[in-house]
Each structure stands twice: as structure tokens, then as C-alpha cells.
Write a structure and sequence with these properties.
The structure holds 2 protein chains of 2 kinds. Chain A folds into 2 domains: 137 residues, Peroxisomal Thiolase, Chain A, domain 1 (3-Layer(aba) Sandwich); 113 residues, 3-Layer(aba) Sandwich (Peroxisomal Thiolase, Chain A, domain 1). Chain A has 10 helices and 10 strands. By secondary structure, chain B is mainly beta. Chain B contains 1 helix and 10 strands, in the order H-E-E-E-E-E-E-E-E-E-E. The chains are: A alpha/beta, B mainly beta. The interface between A and B is medium-sized, with 34 and 26 residues.
């Protein structure tokens, strides 16, 4: 989407990351970060129109674990809420769509994960087809290796770096969105979302061309990712940076990459891009990826209104 | 005999065992609760905003969305607000046995426990009960320290005091 019924801006964000959080649970990690983000624009939870989160119950190890995280929000009186079993960036896309309807003018988006308590590479295997692939237990790092090798075999990327995961262990990110005049009321430096799109590829790895990212390319076109000053890319392994830059045609712009914690890193990229360009008049692209070998990709174009 | 081989039917079951190991992290608030249980005490936490006391504490007031820090020690006595008599066996339990929601004195949330040392026919809403603990030498950081609740010799609680928890 690159034309909006209502303009939506990122008006605040907060994040916390650590290799391993040994003592606090998810709710205890979320509380200070959500309150920080709300506090930056003087909002209380009761003033938030829509709340949506991204996380994976598989990382916590019990079903409907995301429901417990609502303790950090205070769902009383009952709130409008949604959840995605995906990176929080995709939750942000849902919030942008929700805000288009015009019923509410603010949204809280948050993401959380503490995969340090399990074996992340193995846990991610359960994202795969449950009958024909997952029982073979290919771990996430091994699949990324197939992707890197497909890139080498294509001969299009020059030197393709080794598969070294860069994701951080545990963390949370919270972002506050607001529409039009409400955003301008809340901050002097709203960062407008000028385009956002996400695409998914087939689940069968053998059907896909792992040596390119067709979903990133289409999402980039859908989001209108042109005339970009800076890029904030969510990549889990160094070789994926080459795929995303190729798909989005980024060649001259400064590129800032990070993996962040699983399920959090994409939303963190959008938040970091917004912080960096707030008040500058610059235009940035931020990406998020989820799934085996970048199966799902989101591209957002952000513009920091000049202060 | 048919000349054509019968087509195999659809595959109706595929076994795909999945096993993942996790370390559970109870969190700061529940760790305090579990340590209290290890001492033979029940503790809750009070919400600084709405003043509700949560047992077990989860570190946040789920209604207000704020952190709960104030520790509250409870007596281990409470009132039955809802109960169920089960007539079918369950591992380690001989029917009929009673499961009840109990509002512990000083708390604002109900917790589920077994009711024993009484005839199931006598269990009723408003009945006053107390926790029965394992021997001191057996205390561990686990809610299993409380074996069950049993009736105490006190008049039933007034309906008004627990009507919001039925």
C-alpha cells in the first residue's frame, strides 16, 4: 500500500535487547518498554485505539502464550486487540490497515521474544511443512546455508559470506502509531509511513528460487521503495543483506543491518529507522523478514517530516 | 478376482513426533512467590493503581497494565466461591473428590485447590477453609507444597463478601 485513506506516522518507540534475560518473564520485560513508548508522547493505555502484537508461542513453549503478555497492557475495560504469530513488523502493518478504517487514531504495536530459553535453530524447524519437511529437523542455520549456496551457484553476488547467525537472544520493542493531525499533536517530529507492503512465498523450499528474494522485490514495489536516502534492513545472516539490497535495488544508500531478537528484530528496524530520520526530511526504507529462508518479507517506506 | 489391483486408500495418520526442550522462567514476581512457598508462606502482590491483590503474583496488574511491587503476606485461609464434585477417577484422586475456587483472605483473585478432610456433600459456597501443607522437610519452591484445603470451624462468609467471585 502506498496511498492511504489516512496518513499514519510512527510517533514513539522503545526497545530492549539482551543476549539472555535470566530473571524477568515476558510481561516483566514488556512493561517498562511499553510504558516508555507511551510516556514519550504522554499517552496512557486507555487512550490507545488498537493494540496488536507479534511473537511466537513456539519460542515460549506453550500455547496461547501471547495472551499472557496482555498483562503488560491492561486489557480492562476490554480493548481492541490482535496478535500475529510473526515478527512485530507485520503486526505494525495490520495496525496501519486498521487505522485506515477511521474508527481510531492511535495504535500500540509490540513484539517480544526470549528464545534464549530453548534451542532457537531447532525450534524454528516447526515453521516448516509438518508432514514432509519438519520431521527431518532441518535447523534454521542449515536452511540458511542452502540459501547462501544457492546465491553462490547463481554467480550473481560475488563473494557470499558464511552463514553466521547475527540474531540477538531476547528482547522487546514497542511502537506507537497515530494518524494525521493526532500524530502532529503528539510529536513535532512524526515519521510518516509512506508505503508498506508484505509478501509471502511458497512454503515448499524446493519450489522457491532461494538465490533471490522475489517477495522482497514485490513488497518493495508495493510500498513504493524508490528515492531512498537510508536503509534499515532486517537480516538474520550476513548473506541475506545481499539478497535484500538486490531485491530493492539499493546500491548507493547507507545501509544499516541488524537481526535483533527473533520476532522482534523487524519491528525494531522500523523503530530505529524512524528514530534516525525523525525531523530530518529524509526518506528511509526498513525491512522485516520471517520464516525459513526469508519466506515472508515486509518493506516499509518512512519519511521523517523536517522539524 | 478383480484383474485390477485395488487402489491404496488415503493415508489417514502420519506420525511426526516433535520434541523441543525449554527452560521455564517464572519471572521476578513468581520467583518471590515460589520462594515464599518454600518457606511455607503464601504471598501476593498489590496493584498500586486499583489496589487488587494477585495470587500468584505475575508482576503486573492485568487490568491496569502496571507493575506490581508491593508484597502481601496472606494467612492461608480463604472462602470457597465455586466448587465441583467429580465422580470419575483422576490420577492420584479417588472419587468423589472436590475441586474449588478459593478466594484467599486478603486477595482479589480466586485460585483452584482440592478440598479434603470433609464429606463432599458438606462443601458449599461461602465455606471457610485453610491450606494443608506438606511436612516442613518436604517444602520446595512449588505450589504442590499445599496438599489441599480443609474446612475450619468458622461461620460461613457472607455472600456479599464473595459475590463478585462466584
Amino acid at each position: 500500500m502506498k496511498s492511504f485513506l489516512r496518513d499514519v506516522a510512527i510517533v514513539a518507540s522503545a526497545t530492549f535487547e539482551t543476549p539472555s534475560e535470566p530473571s524477568r518473564n515476558e510481561v516483566e520485560m514488556l512493561l517498562p518498554v511499553i510504558h516508555d513508548a507511551l510516556g514519550q508522547v504522554g499517552l496512557s493505555q486507555g487512550e490507545i485505539g488498537f493494540t496488536v502484537s507479534g511473537s511466537s508461542d513456539y519460542l515460549q513453549g506453550y500455547t496461547f502464550a501471547f495472551v499472557g503478555a496482555l498483562d503488560a497492557v491492561g486489557a480492562w475495560p476490554p480493548i481492541r486487540e490482535s496478535h500475529l504469530e510473526m515478527d512485530g513488523a507485520f503486526a505494525l502493518a495490520e495496525a496501519v490497515a486498521y487505522l485506515q478504517e477511521g474508527h481510531v487514531d492511535t495504535a500500540l504495536v509490540y513484539a517480544f521474544a526470549r528464545p534464549s530459553r530453548g534451542d532457537l535453530d531447532r525450534t524454528l524447524s516447526v515453521q516448516l511443512d509438518p508432514y514432509t519437511v519438519a520431521p527431518l529437523w532441518p535447523d534454521a542455520r542449515g536452511l540458511a546455508g542452502l540459501q547462501a549456496q544457492a546465491m553462490r551457484d547463481s554467480g550473481r553476488y560475488g563473494d557470499v559470506p558464511d552463514v553466521t547467525p547475527t540474531y540477538v537472544g531476547d528482547g522487546v520493542t514497542a511502537v506507537i502509531l497515530a494518524t494525521g493531525d493526532r500524530a502532529r499533536e503528539l510529536t513535532k517530529t512524526p515519521v510518516w509511513i509512506r508505503g508498506i507492503d508484505h509478501r509471502i512465498e511458497a512454503q515448499m523450499l524446493g519450489l522457491r528460487d532461494l538465490g533471490s528474494s522475489a517477495s522482497t522485490k514485490l513488497a518493495g514495489e508495493g510500498a513504493g521503495a524508490t528515492n531512498i536516502d537510508e536503509a534499515y534492513l532486517h537480516v538474520l545472516y550476513p548473506h541475506q543483506e545481499l539478497l535484500v539490497k538486490d531485491a530493492l535495488g539499493l546500491d548507493r544508500q547507507p545501509v544499516n543491518t541488524a537481526a535483533g531478537p527473533m520476532m522482534v528484530g523487524g519491528l525494531e528496524r522500523l523503530a530505529t529507522a524512524a528514530k534516525s530520520i525523525a525531523g530530518t526530511g529524509k526518506r528511509a526504507v526498513a525491512t522485516a523478514t520471517s520464516g525459513a529462508c526469508m519466506q515472508q518479507n515486509l518493506v516499509a517506506v518512512l519519511e521523517g517530516a523536517a522539524a | 478376482m478383480s484383474e485390477t489391483a485395488e487402489a491404496p486408500g488415503p493415508v489417514t495418520i502420519v506420525e511426526t513426533p516433535i520434541h523441543l526442550d525449554y527452560k521455564f522462567t517464572p519471572g521476578v514476581a513468581q520467583s518471590r512467590f515460589l520462594r515464599a512457598l518454600e518457606r511455607g508462606e503464601i504471598t501476593g502482590q498489590r496493584c498500586p493503581k486499583c489496589q487488587k491483590v494477585y495470587v500468584p503474583p505475575r508482576g503486573a496488574c492485568s487490568m491496569c497494565g502496571v507493575a506490581t511491587d508491593e508484597e502481601v503476606k496472606l494467612s492461608g485461609k480463604g472462602t470457597i466461591t465455586t466448587f465441583c464434585v467429580t465422580q470419575i477417577p483422576s490420577p492420584g484422586l479417588v472419587p468423589p473428590y472436590v475441586t474449588a475456587w478459593i478466594r484467599l483472605d486478603g486477595s482479589d483473585i480466586t485460585s483452584m485447590f482440592l478440598i479434603q478432610e470433609c464429606d463432599p456433600a458438606e462443601v458449599r459456597l461461602g465455606m471457610r477453609v485453610e491450606a494443608v501443607w506438606v511436612e516442613e522437610s518436604e517444602l520446595v519452591p512449588d505450589l504442590g507444597n499445599i496438599k489441599y484445603f480443609r474446612p475450619i470451624d468458622e461461620p460461613d462468609a457472607e455472600y456479599e463478601t464473595y459475590k463478585d467471585y462466584v
